[in-house]
Amino acid sequence: MRKLSLFLAIIMVVTALAACSGDTAAAANVPAKDLLTAAMECYTGDVTKDPGIYYSDAGEDSEHALDYGTMGFLFYGEYDYEITLLEHVEEYALAMPTGLYAFEIDIMKAKTADDVGRVKELLQSRYDVRESMRDDLIAYEEDQVNVLDSSEILVMGQYVILMATGDNAPAKDAVKALLGAAAESDTPGETTSAPTAEPIDDEIVHISSSVNAALAEGIKNVVGTTDPTLEKSALPTMTVSTHGGDDLVIFGGKCTVGAKIHVRGHLHEDQVFGTDDDNWFVEVQIPSGVSTLTITQEEPGKAESDPIIVTTQPNYALDFEKYGVYRSALGDNMQGHYYGQFDDWMGTNILTDKQVEGLTSRLTERVDFLAENGCELIYLIVPNPIAIYPETAPIRYPKSTADTSRTEQFYAAAREAGATVIELEDLLWEHREDEFKIYNKLDSHWTPYGTYLAYDALMDYIAPDWPELDPVVPGEDVEFYNEVVNGGDIVTAYDLDSHLIQENATFVRWLVEAVDSPYTFYEGTNRPYYPPVNEQKTVKNHLSQGRDLPTAMIMRDSFATNMYQFFNQTFGEVYWQGQSDYMFDKKLIARCKPDYFIVLITERNIESIS
């Protein structure tokens, strides 16, 4: 097959050269599909990662067809976006990543030479949308970042090409050979420098602290707010003192179990923070200029400790923006929050009537298609931690006062479309003070216990239709337990080593044989271990023992990692789409014919499935 492809390529090269009639600036008229095929053959499957292949002339029911609504999301980050620039495109052939991968080759031919600039604008928009992948890749597939960084846009005659392969040279050469035209190569995007503040005292910016030093004499008096007859608390141990942003500073370490941590002297004056077991971790905002902060511990039944004195000022040379929505913020009780959920919290992402109408239409089409294939659409949306623990919202982020939210709009649209929605807010709120945590504090994901609560709610809905279903039962099949471990991605998003701050985290232990249950946490931490469950795969239940069990296809983000064990143990067969692969693959659905198509993602990712 490869020899035949090479032979055809040689023929096309000869034809292209003849068509040029000696004019090397003129590009040959080669179908975009042939150019893409030649470029793709330069790479192995380990590099390409099985991208979706789309052609402009593909039939509506073809696996190579790209519907207009989804194309808007891919090129502009918004479903049903009116892509007026397509008017300038004669044809296209696209190899676009599915899931957490960055390999991509998009080839578009402009209708005329005058249309080239407009087609380049379209691919520039796609380039910009690709950049939004960076946060996911850093968090879950870091080896793909170099592929993303190889992104460039090329112009060859009337052809405009976006390439991101890790090494674009082979694909460039293959396309040039077919076209016989020199490439005008651009790498879009500009690099901007972070603002700096002058002058900066390096010692203060990097936070200097002292315990009962000379500075303490003038500050101790501000601490005496508790009963002086009580025994004084011990000093907390501080293992972390650094910046969490331009005007944000974070501190943490070890404390007495049940203690409170007082921080005074910052932008919001005085704050009292809860702790976790014998760990404390706080973040406060500081004003411009030099600030002197005091940190004390208040043990149960005791007066506050002597102060730890901290001198600091803003640092404008930091680059926490690289984490995007995965940047961390800390609230009360050591609860970490990814920035990605604050749009939901503050109501800045509420949909317009037109967007709701488009969403309802898309979901109705999906419900109808699935029904035709004997399948039910179920949404299992995981609430943001801030929705269940609102008291842990960082003080600088005000809660929305709107009478609706994007999540409520999505639920309403899904129900109107005929989908099943299993709301979890009330359930998780009911269990928020349980012995076992629902969400991690130092990792952005929910715990196996929180996952189980959602699983149990889903089983309550499904089980009546499947008498032989045998859901997982705590105490019989699994047991939950708490263990003090190093922090997860909330800690590392501050560029800190995870061992510096610990948490009493919740885990699950299987008491029976598991169908497919890889260890799903990085050793010694509460950060889920994604590689064993990231890729698209089918898991068959070899323990089903001939029982009549339902099958399920799962569209998911990283919150499905802890659900992986429970679903594999329960369904007869589970078709796992790749993590963060949000394409609604009709061909795959029609071939697998699952009983349920389950969308399991966190609330902040709703835009990916809208």
Structural description of this entry:
Helix 2 packs antiparallel against helix 8 and helix 11 (353-372) crosses helix 13. The strands form six sheets. A six-stranded antiparallel beta sheet has the order 1-2-3-5-4-6, sandwiched between helices. It starts with a helix and ends in an 8-residue tail after the last strand. A hairpin with a 7-residue loop joins strand 2 and strand 3 (104-110). It has 610 residues and is an alpha+beta fold.
SSE topology sketch:
Blueprint: H1 2-20, H2 32-40, H3 45-48, E1 52-55, H4 68-76, E2 89-96, E3 104-110, H5 116-131, H6 134-140, H7 145-149, E4 152-156, E5 159-164, H8 169-179, E6 184-186, H9 202-205, E7 208-211, E8 237-245, E9 248-254, E10 260-266, E11 269-273, E12 279-285, E13 291-298, E14 308-312, E15 328-330, E16 336-338, H10 342-346, H11 353-372, E17 376-382, H12 385-388, H13 406-417, E18 420-421, H14 425-430, H15 448-462, E19 478-486, H16 489-492, E20 502-510, H17 531-534, E21 537-540, E22 551-556, H18 564-570, E23 573-576, H19 586-592, E24 596-602
Parallel strand pairs: 17-18, 17-24, 22-23, 22-24
Antiparallel strand pairs: 1-2, 2-3, 3-5, 4-5, 4-6, 7-14, 8-9, 9-12, 10-11, 10-13, 13-14, 15-16, 19-20, 21-23
Helix pairs in contact: 2-8, 11-13
Report strand order across the widest sheet: 1-2-3-5-4-6
Rg, nearest Å: 28 Å
Which structural class matches the secondary elements?
alpha+beta
What ranges have pLDDT less than 50 throughout 5 or more consecutive residues? 1-25, 189-206, 208-225
Percent strand equals 15-25%
Helix content: 25-40%
Count of runs of 4 or more consecutive helical residues: 19
Shape by Cα distribution: globular
> If you average the pLDDT, what whole number results?
87
Number of strands: 24
- Give the CA-CA distance, first to last residue: 40 Å
Largest sheet: 6 strands, antiparallel
